[in-house]
Amino acid sequence: MAERYNHKEIENKWQKRWEDQDIYRTFEDPSKPEKYILEMFPYPSGELHMGHVRNYSIGDVVARYNRMNGYNVLHPIGYDAFGLPAENAAIARGIHPKEWTYSNIDSMRVQLKQLGLSYDWDREITTASPDYYKWGQWLFLKFYERGLAYRKKANVNWCPGCETVLANEQVEAGMCWRCGTVAEIRELEQWFFKITDYTERLLDDLKLLDGWPERVRIMQRNWIGRSEGALVDFQIRGSDKKITVFTTRPDTLFGATFFLLAPEHPMVNELIKGTEYEAGAVEFRQKVAGETEIDRISAEKEKNGFFTGVYVINPVNGEEIPVYLADYIMMGYGTGAVMAVPAHDQRDFEFAMKYGLPIRAVIQPSGEMLNPDMMAQAYEGEGVMVNSGPFDGTPQTEGVKRVTEYLEEKGVGEAAVNYRLRDWLISRQRYWGNPIPVVYCETCGIVPVKEEDLPVILPEDVGITGFGGSPLAKHESFVKTVCPICDEPARRETDTMDTFVDSSWYFLRYCSPREDKLPFTKEAVDYWMPVDQYIGGIEHAVLHLLYSRFFTKVLYDMGMVSSVEPFKNLLTQGMVLKDGVTMSKSKGNVVSPVSIIDMYGADTARLFILFASPPEKELEWSDRGVEGSYRFLNRVWRLVEDNKQLVAGTTAAIPGELGSAERDLRYIVHKTIKRVTGDIARFSFNTAISATMELVNAMYKYGEGAGRNPAVIKEAIENLVLLLAPFAPHLTEELWEGLGKEKSIHLHAWPKYDPELAKAEEVTLVVQVNGKVRDKITVAADISEEDMRRTALASEKVIANIGDKHVRNIFVVPGKLVNIVAK
Q1: In this predicted model, what pLDDT tens digit does every residue of 159-181 receive, in sequence order?
Q2: 752-756: long-range contacts, CB 8 A cutoff, minimum separation 24
Q3: How far apart are CA 667 and CA 660, in angstroms?
Q4: pLDDT of residue 37
Q5: Closest C-alpha among 472, 510, 503, 497 to residue 141
Q6: What global pTM score does this model have?
């Protein structure tokens, strides 16, 4: 009988040996193909959660699989260590953020190693370390030199809870992405990165990312938000000043009967100052500032406005139209000003009805005459232009072009492309972040710190309360400095950079993490980049992924990298749920990875989390599922241990003539190798593990018979252990050694299958759509029901027949028929 499977002893043994032998250390090797496998690095909260375990287990399987397939694999780890959570946690505990952060890093490093992850620990980075953030400051200076970093006074999103500025991308449903406090609008001097200079490239290059989920590409495309239309100038009555609007419907200009401004528009103060409308406008703006963006733009919400007393002149017909502030107009899109055409825009229609403003139809649908007095809602469809002077009778689609040309001829407008994307606001009024490397001199103005004086060290002797803005502004020895140009007294910038700056290039630092002359060497990044497989949560689709793409393109233009995109392939894993909801401390449903590892072992935790659900889907935690994974590993342990003497003593080759039981087992072995190989490549880890379970069942069944062939058993045992190596690295390493192998299993070649042996008898699969035969496909006789469904849905004839219909159900007769119900 086999000895008991002692997961604690085995896992401690192999973690120590891997560390002692440094088997995952990676070097550039031009003689070998490379693979760069990367999971999004963690914020060091101090404790791993099951989402971490899932993310890192996925990445580790991919890394180990590619390493066994002959690739030189870079698989690094680090910590996204700056940011508000550390600062707030430190305030709550009365300690310094650095102490809190580095203590958590030490704890997380131990937990990551307990999982048996194949990281190159010599490449570990921490963004809060001066040897990292020095190069973040260096990159800021390079952006500044290229005009991509600039400072301006602007209306910004302010989080009262965190007491700092938020980028547009960090305001979610009108609230701070971090703490959930309702964001306010304030006017402050802030630093920005000019991401809008790269708008077209960020949009166009999405076509290069065919290894990304379409959902993520759509999210980025929508965030960038490209619209074609025209810029139109409206003269302010009695003034030489004008307000410009962007519209996608210049064909409706003759129907503009009033004019709307976002309450945050920079011209509002000038328009209302000293007038009888000033007090009311201020009150209205304050009220709107307390509303969330999602509420303001909601189609269901009643539209609210305030008349400013100002009129502008419609440039196409000379009409004077009133200017209102409106809560549903946002500064984040277009120019923050809108020509209101109530007959052809539903929101403007509702506003006009509420405030008794005129409605004029200028687009008539075919065969119908719109009467504004009888309209119950706006008409937003196509038609021909009416009440539009020289353009009457022009088809609406043609009218867009003709009116734009007219505006250009008159010098009151021009064709334009507008984007939703705005420049990236990077200033943060908090302590625990990377200092912005500029000083302010009364003589020289804004002056960048000299490169040789980097890094600007974040001082540690600060009092952090969380109130009253950044403590750096009160740190006299930090603030007081001298001008790098004139040597006169100067004041240091006290804002720190958004932590997304740190994570926008960390993947490049991994390529040469100890480089001290540059952020990274071009030779190293040219060898490793782009990242072949990036793994992380869908919540980073806009923020981190967009910023990383922006940084990479800037660095490409600087000649520092050769790839225009940072991540070739992207996998977004699903959330881990318990009792149907996301695990969280506040819900009291957190399962500690440490306790699972202690009770069942890291290999069990890894196996369960990879087996329970496809990686891109949500995973429901199951204690019974964990126990089932543990029982499976014990079955594998007993199977191999009971046969290891037989395997170690067998040197004979598999004979040419075999009995049916041996042939059946060899077929299952080679079929499993083929299936697991393909499944790992497709990230179908759950079906790969299922295949190994079927193999184990077949091996037990074969072992119960008489006259077992040692060579056949050896082939099956060795391949089983190899196939499980990426999933259960400790157990398989122990079993491999027990089989008499000297070299680590993780440095062994991935098993190859014999196509002839993996070939099963074939049958004809009949595929029906709504009961009618649409295809007949030759498949293996032992095809699984899941593969039958997959094969049927992949049929070109079936796809063509289903068309736009939705698949409602799929009925399977094993080995014979699939009927797809589509409506």
Answers
A1: 888 777 776 657 777 788 778 88
A2: 752/673, 753/670, 753/671, 753/673, 753/674, 753/677, 754/670, 755/674
A3: 10
A4: 98
A5: 497
A6: 0.85
